[in-house]
Write a structure and sequence with these properties.
Number of domains: 1
Radius of gyration: 20 Å
Strand order of the largest sheet: 1-2-3
Number of helices: 6
Shape: globular
Helix content: 25-40%
Order of helices and strands: HEHEHEHHH
Largest sheet: 3 strands, parallel
Number of strands: 3
């Protein structure tokens, strides 16, 4: 396919090619190389090329048990099947079914960059609002997996490594200080 015009930037240090070739076979060879390695593919639900439709994502997830998807929903184009939300903020039915059927394989992403540069990059408030809209339209147990539980499973986070929520931290306490003291006592 031709590179969409909005992604053409000949002035970029490493510009995208103007013609894109199919790479799904290469991706699947990569995934098959080591099925113990978990791969999280970013920008599902609103990626710029609009090629990851629910049908294609379903096929990939079915064949590749080590593939996970990270949502980034900065845009909502009504005519684009690959976009998870309508412009009104409604989660499209094919996406609801897909996320529910593979509820252990999706996470949230913001694609936010923190850099010392005048040019801002990454997620926006709209993107965060879209993620919240999406979660609010999923069954509660599916939303919890996508918003929290799957990240802990994929990255093997345990309860000790997780930061407490503000409501869990008593006023005036310092959780980092308490952790450091426990480590000191154990040495």
């Amino acid at each position: 396919m031709d590179l969409p015009l909005n992604l053409v930037n000949p002035a970029a240090q490493h510009p995208n090619p103007l013609r894109l070739t199919q790479n799904q076979n290469g991706l699947e060879r990569f995934l098959a190389h080591n099925r113990q390695t978990k791969i999280v593919w970013a920008h599902v639900g609103g990626e710029p090329l609009a090629t990851r439709t629910p049908a294609i994502v379903r096929e990939l997830l079915t064949r590749n048990t080590n593939l996970y998807m990270s949502f980034r929903i900065q845009r909502s184009r009504p005519e684009v099947v690959a976009d998870a939300l309508t412009p009104q903020g409604t989660l499209k039915p094919d996406w609801v079914r897909l996320i529910s059927d593979f509820s252990n394989r999706f996470v949230l992403g913001t694609d936010t960059f923190y850099q010392d540069s005048p040019q801002a990059r990454g997620g926006t408030a709209t993107g965060l609002e879209n993620l919240q809209r999406m979660l609010s339209q999923l069954p509660p147990e599916v939303a919890r997996k996508v918003a929290h539980d799957n990240v802990a499973q994929i990255y093997r986070l345990n309860a000790a490594a997780q930061m407490p929520l503000p409501a869990d931290v008593p006023a005036g306490s310092n959780p980092k200080k308490g952790t450091a003291q426990k480590e000191k006592v154990g040495n």
